[in-house]
């Protein structure tokens, strides 16, 4: 099973980019983030023509997450992160695909920090950690995929001091991610490539794509019941270089199930 995660940064604006990548990469499961489309505007018909069926949680202009599966119907198990019934932002969806529970996560960015947006990020992270622990305790195969909006370590970002105040690299953000890993999850991309750059995001500003000044924001965390099935993984960097590209590139893993 080839599972990909891709912050598409507006699914309708970049639909042709998405279609071209799907045709070439042919993932079995795709976790999308930042749809920027309300529920009824999701391009389900165009994706179905390619053999992908999906579940999604839309939100007008912002956020939005989806899970697509090739030649099968994902079974939605949760359409929101538990812990705060008043939180209406479309940032978490969960579905079962061929015996594996898969999430699409779009964790809050948190900028500017300090401030209410950073507080929301940390509170959301704590809710995620609590729910992840509950999923872990079920013993089922789980893949926590998505855009975590956190750079886990210094090797996950190009050398710079210009982002020292950015919410993505703050100690609190990294500590929350580390606490999540410590529950027993495996960072799949770092298991495949323990050292060196694994950029999944290059900002549109300051020519950062051309200069390869990137960072790793998109992650797969594997439960112990599935981590030994990891075969391969990587980042489809070429997608970031296409015309009208998202500022993220798709990351992917292959599990031998």
TrEMBL record:
Every Endonuclease/exonuclease/phosphatase domain range: 4-248
Keyword Hydrolase among UniProt keywords: yes
Cofactor annotation: Mg(2+); Mn(2+)
UniProt binding sites for Mg(2+): 7, 34, 147, 149, 247-248
A Pfam family per the record: Exo_endo_phos
Family affiliation: Belongs to the DNA repair enzymes AP/ExoA family.
Protein known as: Exodeoxyribonuclease III
């Amino acid at each position: 099973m080839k599972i990909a995660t891709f912050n598409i940064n507006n699914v309708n604006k970049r639909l042709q980019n998405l279609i071209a990548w799907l045709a070439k990469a042919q993932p079995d499961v795709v976790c999308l983030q930042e749809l920027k489309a309300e529920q009824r505007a999701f391009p389900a018909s165009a994706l179905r023509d390619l053999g992908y069926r999906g579940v999604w949680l839309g939100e007008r202009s912002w956020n939005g997450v989806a899970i697509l599966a090739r030649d099968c119907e994902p079974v939605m198990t949760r359409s929101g992160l538990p812990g705060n019934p008043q939180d209406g932002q479309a940032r978490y969806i969960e579905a079962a695909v061929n015996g594996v529970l898969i999430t699409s996560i779009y964790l809050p960015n948190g900028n500017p920090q300090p401030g209410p947006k950073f507080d929301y990020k940390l509170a959301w992270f704590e809710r995620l950690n609590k729910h992840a622990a509950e999923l872990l305790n079920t013993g089922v195969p789980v893949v926590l995929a998505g855009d975590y909006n956190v750079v886990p370590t210094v090797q996950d970002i190009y050398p710079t001091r210009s982002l020292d105040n950015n919410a993505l690299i703050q100690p609190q953000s990294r500590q929350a991610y580390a606490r999540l890993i410590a529950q027993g999850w495996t960072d799949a991309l770092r298991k495949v490539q323990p050292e060196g750059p694994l950029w999944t995001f290059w900002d549109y500003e300051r020519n950062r794509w051309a200069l390869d000044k990137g960072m790793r924001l998109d992650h797969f965390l594997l439960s112990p019941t599935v981590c030994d099935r990891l075969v391969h993984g990587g980042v489809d960097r070429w997608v970031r270089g296409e015309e009208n590209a998202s500022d993220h590139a798709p990351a992917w893993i292959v599990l031998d199930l």
